Amino acid sequence: MKATSSTDEQPPIQIVSLQPECLADLWTDIARVANTLQKTETSSTNSTDIINELKARIHPIKPSNPIPKVACIEWTEPLMAAGNWVPELVTLAGGHDCLGKAGQHSNWITLEDLQTANPDIIVVLPCGYDLAQTRQATGEMIATHPNWQQLTAVKNNRIYLTDGNQYFNRPGPRLVESWEILTEIIQQTPINTKRKPVGWEQL
């Protein structure tokens, strides 16, 4: 067996702690990861190009008047309103997040909170759930809350299910697609002709 010399030893493992709470944190974290990779001999990652390309895909949508109120549900039982980057994405998509706060953790809410906010649009994006699981969880949520039918979004058939696990819950480059999904939902029109309309459906 060939002996391993000191020159054959791998560099020490570096741990990069990522805890983004908003889009600005996401861009910073991408740069941090890329810069760490650039320290190895095999990487030529250009973080600036990557970040600029991602940012260029997001262009704020001019909201209608009145601005539609949007409730993003990150958990269905008990109810939780999505926070962190989701309210920011809603704003960029031309809506107003009426329950979540940008840059703050997701918060527990009650049906009464949802009724008081009375959103025009409800987007369900449970943490860790794919589209099929979201569909099942939403059905159970509706069955649990008999006053669900009183909500404006329900009366106007503006309830949308998403694959939260793939798009909304993880802070990575796919949040750009999350913005595209929210824009498609809120504006009811395709925003990117190159993107297949996947990751969400109307209830």
Could you walk me through the main structural features you see in this protein, from its secondary elements to its overall organization?
The protein has helices spanning 23-37, 47-56, 86-92, 111-117, 131-144, 152-155, 164-167, 175-187, and strands spanning 69-76, 79-81, 96-97, 107-108, 121-124, 159-162, 200-202. It is built from 8 helices and 7 strands. With 203 residues, the chain is of the alpha/beta class. The longest helix is centred in the N-terminal third of the chain and has 15 residues, at 23-37. Strands 1, 2, 3, 4, 5, 6 and 7 form a 7-stranded mixed sheet that branches. The chain is 36% helix and 13% strand. The protein has 2 domains: 13-56, no CATH class; 69-202, Nitrogenase molybdenum iron protein domain (Rossmann fold, 3-Layer(aba) Sandwich), CATH 3.40.50.1980.
Briefly, what is this?
The protein has helices at residues 23-37, 47-56, 86-92, 111-117, 131-144, 152-155, 164-167, 175-187; strands at residues 69-76, 79-81, 96-97, 107-108, 121-124, 159-162, 200-202.
Q: Helix fraction? A: 25-40%
Q: Return the CATH architecture of the largest domain.
A: 3-Layer(aba) Sandwich
What's the name of the CATH homologous superfamily of the largest domain?
A: Nitrogenase molybdenum iron protein domain
Count of folded domains: 2
Weakly predicted, low-confidence segments = none
CATH class of the largest domain: Alpha Beta
The helix-strand sequence is HHEEHEEHEHHEHHE
Q: How far apart lie the N and C ends?
A: 63 Å
Structural class: alpha/beta
What's the gyration radius in Å?
A: 20 Å
Number of strands: 7
Number of helices: 8
